[in-house]
Amino acid sequence: MSRNEDKGLFPSLWDSLSSLRLTIALLIILSVASIFGTVIPQNASPEEYLQVYKITTYKILRILGFLDMYHAGWFILLLALLCLNLIACSLKRFRTTLRFFTPELRLDDGQWKTYSPGQKFTQNGLPAQMLPGIRETLSRSFSPPRVVEASPAFHLFAEKGMFSRLGVYFIHLSVLVILGGSLIGSFYGFRGNVNIIEGQEADQVILRNGEHIHLPGFNVSLEKFSVSFYPTGAPKEFKSILTIREGGRKVLTESILVNHPLTYKGISFYQSSYGIAGVERVILNIKDRESGKEVSLSAMMGNLTEIPGALSAFSLSHFLPDFQGMGPAFQVIFSEPNQPQQKFLILQNHPEFEEKRPGRYRFMIKEIEPRYYSGLQVTKDPGVWVVWAGCFIMIAGFYMTFLMSHRRVWIRLTEKGAETFIEIAGSSHRDRTGFEKEFQKIGQALNDSPMGLKEVKESEGHS
Amino acid sequence: MISAKMVSSVTFLYLACTVLYFNYFAFRSERLGKFATGLSWITLLLHTAAILWRWVESYQLGIGRAPLTNMYESLVFFSWCIALLYLLWERKIKSRIIGAFAMPFAFLFIAYASLAPGISDRIDPLIPALQSNWLHAHVITCFLGYAAFAISCGVSIMYLIKIRKKEQGKKESGWTALFPPLESLDDLIYKTIAVGFPMLTIGIITGAAWANYAWGSYWSWDPKETWSLITWFVYALFLHARFTREWRGKRAAFISIIGFVAVIFTYFGVNYLLAGLHSYV
Ligand code: HEM
Q1: Site from B65, B70, B124, B215 to mutate, A interface, most A CB atoms within 10 angstroms
Q2: Is residue B191 within 8 Å of A2, Cβ to Cβ?
Q3: Fewer C-beta within 10 Å: chain B N or C terminus?
Q4: Taking the domains of chain B in order of start, what are their residue ranges?
Q5: H or E, element range at A130
Q6: CA A11, CA A2: separation in Å to the nearest integer?
């Protein structure tokens, strides 16, 4: 209360910081800003922007931080303000919530009215005689009560689900925890890529900004990459077999798939792309035009391969993945005894060119065995567990907030001459209709109890 | 495929349910109402069978995957969630009055799945990025959330129609007189969102967990992720608006409708209008 008095700048700043109106404003601003972030492409190259925007528009957007909006100072400031708002609001409200932890064991007459009294009963005898039975009934039908024995009235108080009042604090705390976890990740983690060719190894990764980072004390090599396809031609599985070596010693070998990464020393490797780095081996059909015989043989790139039963030999000297739009091609260096060396191209998808080329042998490519490279996403994020913890707290908070409720029941035993009046009241801080039923059941339990209470109808009830 | 034919018949049944709920509403006939409810449960049952049968068919094709992964399947599932949540609610609140505003959503989405050109009902095998159990948790929670929001949007429309009549000083007459009182509608809007919001939250979290497994990053601000966050902000706004005097009631109902517009945009708009990682669903 003292905070609300006008004490210059400070209290009013506090009031604004802890107001729900600020929350509403921030949520609206954040939503609208995020919409811009999805409409304006983020982190694209200047050329891409200039295709869409005029140069002045581009410059303005860049200065305002709209091109990398979610990392722009003002966006982060908005998030920080949301956090401050959340903390301030929670602190302000916490005292009110704390009140419920020291329960009101008895209600005064005014409260008694507001907490919707339920049924009333009478019984001959003193409150002290009634107490054990009523306590027992309430324990059974709701929850064990606490008792205040004071003449002329005894009070019983029982409650359930008090923790649900803390649910909102858990939700709000979780927002802070999640943002905190993401901050840890952005300060102490990294995200990079590395392409490794089959049979080769890597000990550093390239970050988004082009910087190189060394893997801490180990390297990773690609033993083998494989890709399989569905009959439709859609990819079915990408798989890289990786080996981690530390100081030259093999530590582990594991295969990674999309959705199945490998983590070593806090650094995770994800299968993200692949490609063809070159050719290892080619299977060829070679036809001798003179004899009409055809042989199939496999040639390693760059090695001299002899044609069986002849004195000729050839080597595949270059691989052209796509020669003038006509598909894969190889340069062949061919030598025969007493002849000058010949160089020519053979195309996998156009065998008809070979038919036209003069010479004794005709080369047909049957199969190219590519050498793959595997594109790995490499990340380190020590904050990710904090983020998951935050998510868990948030879900727990939702459970407490939306599925539990703080329900309280009071029973008052008032001595009236030789009789005792028994009244019950109850309140729930949410799900009133659900509580209504529970409350009626408590009344029913008292009615049905073997104490033989007589129900007092509303018209004849006392105040 | 049999399952696609079942979905087409279910679509017409939802239309029939919608018409019945409207008639119940117009003629206040208890018998019509019971009929509407009964037919809706039967439709839901057939709908469930269609989804399960599609699952079986995927095994017959040698693919074997849950029917939750492309636009067609997600629309069919979305419609199923709306019908299920609505019918459960109907049982709980013991009133059929919002059926006329909830069932049309179930009908519209399944109709879109079976009638819109360009939405294929083929069962394709899963590309590697989709081969994850997180996918199922993600899709189920998101769509349960979306379904709760659809119902909340329907109730919000009722609220706004009713309060408009009231503000114009007209006597409560005709069909708005049949609407539940404003407070009950307001309470229903809140309760549906209190279901939808945690579901959406879990949907976003499971999506993040999945992205973390597939790409090594739980959040990368791609348009679909960002739009789901925008939707989340809008419903957070709704929940907080109720605690302030000036944002309660009519404005809150508006926020709930805007929230559902955001849901629809997250679902369709992002695919058709913006590019991103999620373009497959
Ligand atoms: C984006 C982050 C936020 C989320 C997800 C969130 C979530 C929630 C939820 C789910 C509730 C419960 C609503 C209900 O009981 O119907 C709530 C209540 C509340 N929130 Fe937030 N909130 C957020 C940010 C904030 C901020 C920044 C403030 C700062 C003022 C705030 C203040 C409150 C207050 C005062 C309540 C009411 C608590 C009560 O008396 O029951 N929230 N919030």
Answers
A1: B215
A2: no
A3: N
A4: 1-118, 128-281
A5: helix A127-141
A6: 9
Taking chain B, what is the end-to-end CA distance rounded to the nearest angstrom?
21
pTM of the predicted structure, to 2 decimals: 0.87
What does each C-alpha distance from A403 to A90, A272, A430 come to in angstroms? Answer: 21, 41, 9
CA–CA separation, A257 and B267 (whole Å):
28
The answer to whether the Cβ–Cβ distance between A394 and B201 falls below 8 Å is: yes
Q: Is the pLDDT of residue A327 over 60?
A: yes
Q: Which residue has the higher pLDDT, A48 or A159?
A: A159
Average pLDDT value for residue range A30-37: 93
Give the tokens for residue A420.
Answer: 């005792």
Interface of A with B in 56-75 (CB under 8 A): 70
Residues of A in contact with B217 (CB under 8 A): 191, 379, 381
**Angle (nearest 5°) at CA A394 between A391 and A395:** 90
- CB–CB of A243/A219 below 8 Å? no
Distance, CA of A156 to CA of A408 (rounded, Å): 11
In chain A, DSSP finds a helix count (H) and a strand count (E) of 11, 21
Residue B242 phi, psi (nearest 5): -65, -20
> Tokens at residue A85, please?
């708002």
Mean pLDDT of B64-74: 88
A259/B128 touch (CB, cutoff 8 Å), yes or no: yes
* Extended strands (E) in A307-406: 313-320, 329-335, 342-347, 361-380
Is residue A9 over pLDDT 70? no
Tokens 């030789």, residue? A418
The Cα B229–Cα B223 span in angstroms is 10
- Ligand 1 centroid to A412 CA: how many Å? 36
Q: In testing the pocket of ligand 1, which one of A89, A398, A431 has its CB within 8 Å of the most ligand atoms?
A: A89
Given the structure tokens 């839901």, which residue do they identify? B44
Among A23-32, B14-23, B158-167, name the one with the lowest average pLDDT.
B158-167
Question: Looking at CA atoms only, how far is residue B265 from chain A in angstroms?
Answer: 11
pLDDT in tens, B32-41: 999 999 999 9
Length of chain A: 463
Q: Which atom of ligand 1 is nearest to the CA of A397?
A: 10
Q: Is A163 on the interface with B (CB under 8 A)?
A: no
